[in-house]
Amino acid sequence: MENLIHLLAPLARERAYLDPGSGSILLQLLVAAALGAAFAVKVYWKKIKAALGKKSVESEQTPPENDNTGDKPETN
User: Fold this and answer.
1) Which of 5, 35, 42, 59 has an alpha carbon 20 to 30 Å from 71's alpha carbon atom?
2) Is 55 within 8 Å of 49 (Cβ atoms)?
3) How far is C-alpha 1 from the chain's CA centre?
């Protein structure tokens, strides 16, 4: 077991230099991923809601069957 640790120890050493720009790029990557995910949810919200079983997409887009708001003139 000790031989295995000595064998794998050189693999665990750091061999790269991370300058301040690397941290900035990683932060930018995280912000872009969060904004991209938020935009995707916004675009597909109706489909996500339908998939979760709340309401179907068709029922939200169809107008009511009988409005009865007085569009027809009354006859006396």
Assistant:
1) 59
2) yes
3) 45
Per-residue burial over 57-73, b if 16 or more Cβ lie within 10 Å, else e, is eeeeeeeeeeeeeeeee
User: Alpha-carbon distance 59 to 50, whole Å?
Assistant: 10
* Helices and strands in the chain: count of H runs, count of E runs: 4, 0
Quick: pLDDT tens for 44-73.
999 988 888 865 455 556 666 665 665 666
Place of tokens 């000790």: 2
Distance CA 29, CA 24 (A): 9
Q: Which two tokens stand for residue 7?
A: 């064998």
Q: How far is 31 from 43, CA to CA, in rounded Å?
A: 18
Write phi, then psi, for 71 (nearest 5 degrees). Answer: -70, -30
